[in-house]
Amino acid sequence: MIYNVAIIGYGYWGPKLARNFQNSNHFKVKYIIDKSIKNLSKAKTDFPIAKLYKNYKLIKKNQVNLVVVASPTKSHFIIAKYFLDKFHVLVEKPLSMSLKEVKILEQVSKKNNKLLFVDYPFLFSGSINYINKVIKSGKYGSLLEIETYREQAPIRTDSNVVWDLAVHDISILNYLLKQNPKKCNSLKIKTSNKSIADTAYLNLIYKNKLNVFIKNSWISPIKVRLMKFKFKKAILYCDENEGVHKIRIFVKNKSGSQYNIKMPEINLSEPLSELVNYIHRSIINKNNKIFENNLNINITRTLEKLA
Ligand SMILES: NC(=O)c1ccc[n+]([C@@H]2O[C@H](COP(=O)([O-])OP(=O)(O)OC[C@H]3O[C@@H](n4cnc5c(N)ncnc54)[C@H](O)[C@@H]3O)[C@@H](O)[C@H]2O)c1
Per-residue pLDDT for 254 more than 90? Predict the structure, then answer.
């Protein structure tokens, strides 16, 4: 069976989602909705057969199986809630900037037996899933510290840098550590625009005094996507900007003064195509394993404390 999809929002990220759904054997992009005529005309070139609308309320029951919400963050709640009684819904990150709203969306999805997915892309990346296996195996001993740096991204006007970029770090941490932080500290700075924080330094403390340090900034001439996981016996670097060797593991020698480097092979497929496959499996199996145990609620609760 081919599932029909409606994409709402065809700006920067919407076209990437549309391409990944269309490239899948299981989905077809049937509708594209955007308020902007300019972006709809781009959609017409990219998807000549899709139907194009300016108003998402023109999508009626039974016309699609999945709605993808890639409009600005402040519109996610109202649009996702509108569709969750009729269709499965994938919403861009962050799901909403309010814990109260995320709880409502979770309730509506349960009540209507519809699946609610959020595009936390790194949960579907080969690198983070490799690190997940390393942590589970315990082969390098306990985790002592995590550092993460995420710099350069489009400046937003409806959410600050914590909602926009730390959502990646917090979703990865929830996925890998399967726990919430015990303590959250944040320093937010407005370096370029007086009304919104564009840079943030975050510190989260987890069980067993595991410290996590996060630096997020939209303002940087260089794109940085680097995470460091310090284990007792090794330090793992994950650099998403690397084409092939995204992960390097520096394994300490017996004296602990020198390192041997390992560069493991990882799955390099595009995370969005893995997300599309995951959504297909979830619809078929009527489950949503990654999002079980209140993933969205836990992520939003931590972000609310930090933002
Ligand atoms: N997962 C990721 O890594 C990632 C990356 C980039 C953006 N995003 C998220 O995607 C969302 C969109 O970001 P973007 O950079 O594409 O923004 P954008 O401004 O480039 O695009 C948003 C589009 O939505 C349209 N729009 C606005 N309100 C609408 C409505 N009510 N109905 C229909 N269309 C509407 C706008 O006209 C615009 O074309 C944000 O929530 C952002 O956080 C996620």
Answer: no
